[in-house]
């Protein structure tokens, strides 16, 4: 039996590994090569220019502006989404107290889970189009219509450089929360109810239950959520493309690296320079994921 183990494993993994190499590793390797050329998407044999694109990249103010925006997204998006999703998950799974010897969520929690998850069913482009109507800068916009009722002048949610990126972050948070409510709810359902029951019998309130039981036992799920949200913060292409003024405006106040990659490749035909940006984005994302997993690593709690 042992003699046939390794041929079986190799035969089982050969096809997926080959497909992964062709369709994932291959394009990455090609992008690294194109990043060292001046290819404009037309010539069959682009000129090899070494690290010239990367030198230009690190002197490009637009590139650093986009990186700063990603920095803000990396702070705001995970913190807001995780905080809101944790609150709702706890309310929907534990905060209802003990009923029939079982910890339950608030009344109607099953219905609320469906409502929170609904934005995940909508395409990103559709969500952006919907929020175009909500953020309209005149009184016909949903938000400005409500502000007009209390005598407040219309606000340029997407036209004000100081508000535009935060308005887009709000859309990203709204869309992401539902998925993480479901994710955290699944994590909470795996926590033995006896632990909650014992703590409740000892007089622990909702605040104590959350910080002493739920949060520590849900740490692995929170770690994964933070990495996923960080990767989402490095993307944000579709939302910014549809919602922002002049694709990344006003005045570049909402631009992100995927949008600049698209602009340089398909507007300016600078495929070599766009690939250099893509390589930089790849290493930024990889560095973030590795550091997050390293910093948030802690001893696993068995239960």
Automatic annotation (TrEMBL):
InterPro entries in UniProt: ABC_transporter_permease, MetI-like, MetI-like_sf
Alphabetical keyword list: Cell membrane, Membrane, Transmembrane, Transmembrane helix, Transport
Keyword Transport: yes
A GO biological process held by the record: transmembrane transport
Transmembrane segments: 6-29, 72-90, 110-130, 165-186, 207-229, 271-293
Residues of the ABC transmembrane type-1 domain: 75-292
One protein family per Pfam: BPD_transp_1
SUPFAM superfamilies reported for this sequence: MetI-like (SSF161098)
Top-rank taxon, per record: Bacteria
Protein localization: Cell membrane
Membrane topology recorded in Swiss-Prot or TrEMBL: Multi-pass membrane protein
GO CC terms: plasma membrane
Family the UniProt entry places it in: Belongs to the binding-protein-dependent transport system permease family.
Name under which the protein is recorded: Sugar ABC transporter permease
């Amino acid at each position: 039996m042992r003699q046939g183990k390794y041929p079986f494993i190799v035969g089982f993994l050969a096809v997926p590994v080959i497909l992964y190499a062709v369709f994932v590793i291959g394009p990455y390797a090609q992008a690294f090569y194109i990043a060292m050329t001046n290819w404009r998407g037309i010539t069959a044999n682009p000129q090899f220019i070494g690290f010239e694109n990367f030198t230009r990249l690190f002197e490009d103010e637009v590139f650093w502006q986009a990186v700063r925006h990603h920095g803000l997204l990396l702070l705001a998006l995970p913190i807001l989404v995780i905080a809101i999703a944790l609150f709702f998950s706890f309310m929907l799974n534990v905060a209802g107290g003990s009923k029939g010897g079982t910890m339950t969520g608030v009344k109607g929690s099953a219905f609320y889970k469906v409502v929170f998850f609904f934005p995940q069913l909508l395409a990103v482009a559709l969500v952006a189009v919907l929020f175009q109507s909500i953020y309209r800068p005149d009184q016909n916009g949903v938000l400005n219509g409500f502000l007009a009722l209390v005598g407040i002048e219309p606000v340029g949610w997407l036209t004000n450089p100081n508000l535009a990126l935060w308005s887009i972050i709000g859309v990203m948070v709204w869309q992401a929360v539902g998925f993480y409510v479901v994710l955290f709810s699944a994590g909470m359902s795996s926590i033995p109810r006896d632990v909650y029951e014992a703590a409740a019998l000892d007089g622990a309130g909702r605040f104590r239950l959350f910080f002493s039981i739920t949060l520590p036992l849900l740490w692995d799920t929170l770690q994964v959520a933070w990495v996923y949200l960080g990767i989402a913060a490095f993307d944000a292409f579709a939302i910014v493309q549809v919602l922002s003024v002049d694709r990344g405006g006003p005045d570049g106040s909402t631009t992100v690296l995927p949008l600049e990659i698209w602009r340089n490749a398909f507007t300016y035909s600078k495929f070599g320079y766009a690939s250099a940006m893509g390589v930089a984005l790849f290493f930024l994302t990889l560095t973030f994921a590795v550091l997050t997993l390293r910093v948030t690593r802690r001893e696993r709690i068995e239960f």
